[in-house]
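From the shared-data thread, chain only:
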Amino acid sequence: KVQATHPDCSIILYFREQEAECLEIIRRESQTPASPGLPGQQGCLTEWDGVSCWSAVPIGQSRAVACPDILHVFKKSKVLIRRNCTESGWSFPSPPYYNACELEAIDSNNDTEAKASYFVTMKVLYTCGYSTSLAALLLAIGIFSCFRKLHCTRNSIHIHFFTSFILRGAAVFIKDAVLFSDESVDHCTMSTVNCKAAITFFQYSVLANFYWLLVEGMYLQTLLLLTFTSEKRYIWWYILIGWGIPMLTVCVWAVTRLQYDNHGCWDDYTSLYWWVIKAPILLAVFGNFLIFLNVTRILAQKIWSPDISKNYKQQYMRLTKSTLLLIPLFGVHYVVFALFPEHIGVDARLYFELVLGSYQGFLVALLYCFLNGEVQAEIKRNWGKWQLSMESNVFNLVTQDFTA
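Structure, as tokens:
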């Protein structure tokens, strides 16, 4: 039973697989002098009629097949379709396919137009979301890079986290450009190097995004547990986790698909090999959830401890509020959807992962940069210096004109 990523493609993929199997049988029969049960080739040879494969039979016998078994496309029917082998060849199917096999639901023109309008609206929404996020993330990286006082391990990790969001947004635009730029292309059977590369880059950016969120949680936990440990000691481990594990995972997935499942554009999520990508993402999400619980426990202990001053308590609150907000926000919906098959809740998945997910980069830039008190203070300080510098320049110009 076929359950493709896009339900509309399931019927095409099903018939292509059935046709390939039938043509292989025909090829083997053509290489043998006589088929079993057909002495001297007197009978009807195996035939593909575009819907079913009819095995070879002697003259006077018949074959019966059931309707194509495609989930969510054809209704289950016990009616058998028969063809007789006559001296002039195969007879016509009886009853005809269109009488025996009934579709689950035949979309009307209005339904088709509504579906097209829905996907166009979705694309506009997530395009606006990713564009807003990319602009905010680039500005945030510029702020962290320009001001020297903001150069530290914590902000370096933030920059890597921002970069993973930028890659994810760019990957979505690249995937759309490669897969959906030409409406004349059959997307169900598309299998080019460009589209596979686009999907591979997209999977890498998604993995890197989840693992850099995991790094943010790990860094926060390390900061709370090991107060006097040098932060720079762990930065290369963080980089290895954030970029290295996704790279290794995607390479294993790509090699596996090339060797064992190299069909289509690798964007089908029903293959067992999809778990090569899905399992590490779930591992990162559950790891973040455990970190979330542990950090909450540590924070509660430090806040209620009488040995810690009020200033330190406020510092701990500032350190944790952004990460504790992001961890459940990013992971909860993915865990919920992971418990159900891929074809269930497609509309909800699209809304969460495309529309709401497209604004996550903007939210990250807002929490870690634009609403960061340290960043705001540094911007105000430099803005004040710039204003004093401008006023001094104006005063010098006026003085020069007066003395002249």
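The domain at 7-100 is CATH 4.10.1240.10 (Hormone receptor fold).
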